[in-house]
Specification:
single chain, 101 residues, 4-stranded mixed beta sheet, globular
Length: 101
């Protein structure tokens, strides 16, 4: 089965720690709120100020593993860190790669 194409767009800061992102696949657009706490950033060794890029790359990471409509409406970065053993290493690669684009 071919991989679904997902477009991540409209990442907006809602407050200091919460972002809203839209993910569109072939069938629908899903809005997802993602909380990015200072503690979460510290756990993955990332600096404040990179949150929109971390949100985008976290969604890309999750979308490599499941469909957009399977993701919860609200995510917390710390929950993603806890759920996936390879997330921290992978997010560093993804963020570095996206910074070069």
């Amino acid at each position: 089965m071919p991989k679904m194409v997902n477009e991540i767009s409209n990442i907006q800061a809602l407050d200091g720690q919460t972002y809203l992102a839209s993910v569109t696949d072939e069938e629908a657009t899903v809005d997802i709120r993602i909380s990015v706490s200072a503690a979460g950033l510290e756990r993955i060794g990332m600096a404040a100020g990179d949150e929109p890029r971390i949100v985008r790359e976290t969604l890309a990471y999750l979308l490599d593993r499941q469909r957009a409509d399977e993701l919860p409406d609200t995510l917390d970065l710390e929950d993603v860190i806890a759920a996936y053993d390879d997330y921290t290493d992978d997010i560093h690669r993804r963020v570095a790669r996206s910074a070069q684009r």
